Amino acid sequence: MDSDFGIPRELSELQKLRSLYQPGLPPCLQGTTVRVEFGDATTCADPADVHAISRAFPHTYGQPLAHFLRATAKVPDAQIITDHPDVRVGILFCGRQSPGGHNVVWGLQNALKIHNPKSTLLGFLGGSEGLFAQKTLEITDEILETYKNQGGYDLLGRTKDQIRTTEQVKAALNACKDLKLDALVIIGGVTSNTDAAQLAETFAEAKCQTKVVGVPVTLNGDLKNQFVETNVGFDTICKVNSQLISNVCTDALSAEKYYYFIRLMGRKASHVALECTLQSHPNMVILGEEVAASKFTLFDLTKKICDAVQARAEQDKNHGVILLPEGLIESIPEVYALLKVIAFVSPPLATFGNEIHSLLKQGVAPDSISSQLSPWASALLEFLPPFIKRELLLHPESDDSAQLSQIETEKLLAHLVEAEMNRRQKEGTYKGKKFNAICHFFGYQARGSLPSKFDCDYGYVLGHICYHILAAGLNGYMATVSNLKNPSNKWRCGAAPITAMMTVKHWAQSPGASSIGKPAIHPATVDLKGKAYELLRVNAGRFLMEDLYRNPGPLQFDGPGADSKAVSLCVEDQDYMGRIKKLQEYLDKVKNIVKPGCSQDVLKAALSVMSSVTEVLSVMSSTSSDGQTTL
Amino acid sequence: MDSDFGIPRELSELQKLRSLYQPGLPPCLQGTTVRVEFGDATTCADPADVHAISRAFPHTYGQPLAHFLRATAKVPDAQIITDHPDVRVGILFCGRQSPGGHNVVWGLQNALKIHNPKSTLLGFLGGSEGLFAQKTLEITDEILETYKNQGGYDLLGRTKDQIRTTEQVKAALNACKDLKLDALVIIGGVTSNTDAAQLAETFAEAKCQTKVVGVPVTLNGDLKNQFVETNVGFDTICKVNSQLISNVCTDALSAEKYYYFIRLMGRKASHVALECTLQSHPNMVILGEEVAASKFTLFDLTKKICDAVQARAEQDKNHGVILLPEGLIESIPEVYALLKVIAFVSPPLATFGNEIHSLLKQGVAPDSISSQLSPWASALLEFLPPFIKRELLLHPESDDSAQLSQIETEKLLAHLVEAEMNRRQKEGTYKGKKFNAICHFFGYQARGSLPSKFDCDYGYVLGHICYHILAAGLNGYMATVSNLKNPSNKWRCGAAPITAMMTVKHWAQSPGASSIGKPAIHPATVDLKGKAYELLRVNAGRFLMEDLYRNPGPLQFDGPGADSKAVSLCVEDQDYMGRIKKLQEYLDKVKNIVKPGCSQDVLKAALSVMSSVTEVLSVMSSTSSDGQTTL
Fold first, then answer.
1. Interface membership of B319 toward A (CB under 8 Å)
2. Contacts of residue A411 in chain B, CB cutoff 8 Å?
3. Which PANTHER family match (chains A, B) (predicted)?
């Protein structure tokens, strides 16, 4: 089967046209000179985590930001790299396939060859397993031919996508040494990039010459922080899903007899569901983050939906479309504990779940498990309808992502809502048509899509940045592009240490005692104070009652819609990297004005102002520390 | 809620662009003169049915074909209609919404206004229910503004979509009389067009002035016969589904660990599944028609899939994509009887199903039904996994289409295949990875799509033809376009009596006795001797083993793929209407050559040749009669 990777494929007319598309490069990546400017040493978002992270990553924590500049930029301290020896680079896909991933490989290969045609790019076949087993394919122009701007990860494939155990890390180290790699590029989401940071640290410790670079590619859109505005694939996934959601909305409005419950892939966070709502205007969306923040129970959610159905029926509307994120189920407090058996086991909370897990391991039949659980777990389990019980119990060994996507939350809620609407109808409080639900899960059918123009461009540019990172000799960095909502010739390219994106989870284990997790990049959840959520909040009432359905249409590559970007990307006022640079400029200006020799008055004024500035910032930093994982 | 119909909608950028698209008209429909040529009186495909159909439709059976001609066409007998009094026409949507339906309304409205600006088009709100209740909306340019080239049926809505009972037919007659309609246009599939024929007959009998016209619009693509090459909506549905299937194929190839079982909407016939297979090249498709022809049992199907999984595993391929048509379940012999409870009850076979139905009516709880059935029905029911049992039992009252789409055949087969693969693995005959299935149903998410260019054009042209039919004073006709695989300026426009498309079902009830059904248009099944199926057959082996996945990409409106047409439309050598005209020309030529006064030798030669021609044709006609419903 390995021989199937990288073989030319039969392309459709449209695929052929797409394979000829050449993404543009921002000015800073053009030419053959790499110009890098280093910013200040980085910290992490939460000052409370500094100790834990710096201790876990002694070699790679606190490294400076890197900005890549255009050849003509007048920055005196920029390091100019004109010497490009031939290098050997390895690259692999980790985790769920995401549209645009192939373009990272293409971008990197292109950058390598531009700077030195003798350089070599080795793709690892079958993800991390291929890395451990040192199965490689040399990436050439010929091989890329039918994969440029195409979806999927089938150029190289992927497998388990974990580089975490001592054994796995050792195998990766050996592979990089044996293959004499100058750099290893890991394409993936939060987990894979955390693994990349760990690998970088281990390599530095072991004095291995291979630099490790991470690339933010994940359809979930949850690798989001000060440095990373969005991920490769998110744009496409949202466009493909929005098309389908809109089709279902049109359908609902035509037949006027169904409520559609649509669950969207996207792991724990609800970014995909939020973005699709902003694009398609379905009647309702239930974000996991809202549920978690309000501590809604299953009963509350059911009631909320039923009230909406009833209110609509009073306006003679007996149809509707309701979106649910994949991670919703995890956010419902009473289901959360039971789910721990499946989701990755976080030490202090694993106990409830482990009850089921260990019973299954002892060979207890799933049907008789309920009677052997502690009373409350058993009561909860018995409350759930049989098909959900089965889904919870039958696959405890599979990996967490497959698991989460196989729990049919949409059916659970439709089932509970139907029961409640029937009750209300009997009782006489609901007078609409008989409630009819149709359930959908939109996941796999979007993941393999042809990438949107945005994702083609973003992936390709990130691939180029990987080369610049390696040329600058950086280890443990992630390639970043900011200012993404503007056209690609305005994009700012850089690199940030992965450790600067990490946080540490704290749990109150028992009164007085607390435990902390390993530093990691955690999935960014939807910011309930952010602008994208605000846009939803102010429109939710009208979306619910007025059927303002909007159909962005099928993914286009030309004409209207082809250059549209995610609503949530465009409304957020991000550009963190740009602002960091701006601040640096102000500080430099102050230094220049208050040089030794300046007047006493200027110095006194500077001291006075700076003292109050630092005081305000210290206070703000310490208050922001008790809180959110993400900005 | 009725007030919501026809209101302007917020359109996305792409939708706006599409709303400006102007479909072209073939030359024969241009200008303000209607030129119609009548062909010979029509019969029906099977000579054995003539008696039953002509008896049921004394006023509308045997009417001639009508061909609409360009203004410059030199056809001496063509009737030229230049006088266009203002007329009142009603139009309604019946049955499952299908992309392009709105364009029929637009085309008709446009044709009406071109020929007489005082003419009125009334849309019935909410399908047949709106017709009975005489709820109308006058279709104007303003109202059409945001519905041109858009998906769904939300301009007018639709409801139960049946005009069959005496009461319903009477209500329809009253509506047409009260509203003084010159014509009633019914947009729908096989059932609705059968209803249209019945209505035409009743109206003629009642000397009602309203002419009834049918338009072939159904996503199932099963209104296919000598006169109708394909249906409005089929092209779009296949393109949207093919995109998703291809995405899933790419996904399968990237992750290499799942088998995807995808069920496609399309009712009893497997046209959608066949077309999608020809576009996307998944590993396997199981057509209902193949299963019915080979009398495959559930066990046979499971074995067939398992053998394929095993053969692929031997080549180290542990992934795949398998398509199943919605109607497959009906085609499996042993499930067929049980399903009769849900599908429309055909008298002689209803007994098994009716067992369940009547027990439910008596208030027997679904769980205890099995014990009260006859032994064989009970055994079959108990063999099925619980979720399928529930789906079979719990909704016996809902309409057959909803029912069929809610039986999760894909899960049933995945379940059976998984059990068998696990057995083979234990036994040691299967040595591949653990079998992992993911199930999808693609239906509602395609139905509301923006229509493809083909469906926009086809729907619009059919709308125009409706006006020509009405101007020619025809009743009980369906608007037809032939030569569809060529560009629209080569399309041939006409009209065929709906009765000419009917067949009669015969059942052997008991030895010696047989019973016949009502004449109706029956869904055309996939022709296992046709070219489209042959194309599948010769490639099936390679599709199965070689992963020749092909991604037509998302529906495009410009550039490559925008003008592509269904593979099954293009490979079939149809143009029946063109050939009928060609034959007429030959017969006319013979008449001209062998005019009274010609030589004895010429006459003798003509008689000799014609005698053998008629003999050959008689023999062929009688053998073709015992067989297929469709050509």
1. no
2. none
3. PYROPHOSPHATE--FRUCTOSE 6-PHOSPHATE 1-PHOSPHOTRANSFERASE, PYROPHOSPHATE--FRUCTOSE 6-PHOSPHATE 1-PHOSPHOTRANSFERASE SUBUNIT ALPHA 1
Q: How far is the C-alpha of B267 from the C-alpha of B330, rounded, in Å?
A: 10
Cβ distance A524 to A227 under 8 Å?
Answer: no
Residue type, B369: I
B152 → closest Cβ in A14, A254, A559: A254
Q: Is the ipTM of this complex over 0.90?
A: no
B253 CB near a chain A CB, below 8 Å? yes
pLDDT at A77: 80
Confidence of residue A343 (pLDDT cuts 50, 70, 90): very low
Q: Which residues of A315-324 are buried (b: 16+ CB within 10 A; e: fewer)?
A: eebbbbbbbb
Contact at 8 Å (CB) between B476 and B185? no
Give the one of A153, A254, A450 whose C-beta lies nearest to B553's C-beta: A450
- Looking at residue A607, what is its pLDDT? 87
Length of chain B as a residue count: 631
Domains B24-233+451-510 and B235-445+526-568 share a fold: yes
Q: Stretch A602-627: mean pLDDT, rounded?
A: 76
**Percent of chain A with pLDDT strictly greater than 90:** 59
DSSP-derived 3-state class of residue A508? strand
Residue B340 has what pLDDT?
A: 55
The pLDDT of residue B429: 92
Whether pLDDT at B354 is above 80 = no
How near does any CA of chain A get to the CA of B24, in Å?
A: 21
Q: Please list every residue in chain A whose beta carbon sits closer than 8 Å to the beta carbon of residue B157.
A: 253-256
Interchain contact B265–A (C-beta under 8 A) = no
Domain boundaries, given as residue ranges, for chain A: 24-233+451-510, 235-445+526-568, 575-620
CA B65, distance to chain mean position in Å, is 21
Is the separation of the CB atoms in A479 and A214 below 8 Å? yes
Find the mean pLDDT for residues A8-32. Answer: 92
For B317-340, give the DSSP string: ---EEEEEETTHHHHSHHHHHHHT
Average predicted confidence (pLDDT) for chain A: 86
Instruction: Please state the rounded mean pLDDT for residues B7-29.
Output: 91
Using CA coordinates, name the residue in chain A closest to B2.
Answer: A316
Q: Which residue of B243, B259, B406, B407 to mutate against A (max A Cβ within 10 Å)?
A: B243
- Is B492 touching A (CB cutoff 8 A)? no
Nearest CA in chain A to B558: A558
- Pairing between strand A120-124 and A136-138? antiparallel
Write the pLDDT tens digit of every residue in A431-470. 988 999 999 999 888 999 999 999 999 999 999 999 999 9
CB A463 within 8 A of CB A29: no
Cα distances (Å, whole numbers) of residue A623 to A151, A544, A628, B349: 44, 37, 11, 75
Question: What's the Cα-to-Cα distance from B245 to each of A431, B260, B276, B297, rounded to whole Å?
Answer: 40, 9, 8, 26
* B440 contacts chain A (CB < 8 A): yes
Over the stretch A219-258, which tens digit does the pLDDT of each residue have? 999 999 989 999 999 999 999 999 999 999 999 988 888 9
CATH code given to domain A235-445+526-568: 3.40.50.460
Fold type of domain A24-233+451-510: Rossmann fold (3.40.50)
Q: Does B158 touch chain A (CB under 8 A)?
A: yes
Q: Would the CB atoms of B557 and A557 count as touching at under 8 Å?
A: no
Average pLDDT over residues B223-248: 95
Residue range A595-599: mean pLDDT, rounded: 82
B547 touches A: beta carbon within 8 Å = yes
Please report residues of B whose CB lies closer than 8 A to that of A547.
Answer: 4
Q: Pick B447's closest partner by Cβ from A247, A440, A447.
A: A247
Q: What is the pLDDT of residues A521-532, one digit of tens each?
A: 999 999 999 899
Would you call B4 an interface residue with chain A, using a CB distance cutoff of 8 Å? yes
pLDDT at A183: 97
